[in-house]
Design goal:
Elements: E1 15-17, E2 21-27, E3 36-42, H1 45-48, E4 55-57, E5 61-67, E6 72-77, E7 95-102, E8 108-116, E9 121-126, E10 132-137, E11 141-147, H2 148-157, E12 168-170
Antiparallel strand pairs: 1-2, 2-3, 3-11, 4-12, 5-9, 5-11, 6-8, 6-10, 7-8
Amino acid sequence: MESNKTPDADGIVRAQQFEEGDVLMLTPPNDSFAADRYLMDFYDIRTKDLCSRMHLHTGMRYVRIMTGQETTIRISTLSEPKILPQASGETIVLATFIDEVVDENEAPRTRFNAVVPPCTWVDMQIPRGTAHQFNAIGKNAVIDTVHPEESIEIFREQAKRINMMAQTIFLESQQEPGGSCDLPSDTTLISE
């Protein structure tokens, strides 16, 4: 809606565009809600031909990643993730693999990857300062994310304007083409 693209009564622009997709702030920080909450509709890396960059946040995140038909999400991080089994005992697991990336100083780094298969949701906790990136392969992917520490920061600093990118630090200066974050051809998406 056009009204989400202009500042509201609190000066908040609720709709923004990020590298990964279109974002809508569902709930801004306020005295009665302990966090702010966003919904992001991911871009398909094959259509946009761009990968999101590795980045970190100065505040932690709680994230629910959801995929629809014919869509996967590649989660990449520079820290080895801890993947817990489903409480329901289902047999769907996240495919994982390791690859190497070269930073801007041409130093190699190990990148840990997990793949969310089609028609699946995954809950994540991302501690502050954890380098990560999300890339959707397909057009049916969203994340619902809650930022509890952003509210604390907003109120502590008595910010007059909320900027959804305020806590984001990019570790790369340029975005890579879509093929560089596609899945390896031998990736098995569902295993038992």
